[in-house]
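pinging the channel bc i need a second pair of eyes. not urgent but kinda urgent?? the chain im working w is below, pasted from the shared doc
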Amino acid sequence: MKWFFRWFQKGLDQAAQEYVNNVPQQLTAHEDLGINPLRLRIFRANGGTVIETRQYDRNDREQVQLHIIGHEEDLSHSIAKIITMETLRQ
């Protein structure tokens, strides 16, 4: 049974080493893109839905926008429009 634990431990060590070797490359690629995430918060309200967007601009100022979507509007289509508008605004 000891051979199994040695074999299993060796596999874990190799997997951990591969992960450690690949993490810095992934972080470098992300930092080079200069991406600021867009955060969405969705609230239910009487008569519709309120979408709050938060994003940091190039000067590290937080930009907060509120969008109101009525019950008669398609929620998924409206959220897609909001994401597009906020992305273009950046």
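so The mean pLDDT is 79. and The longest helix spans residues 2-33. — does that match what u expected or am i reading it wrong
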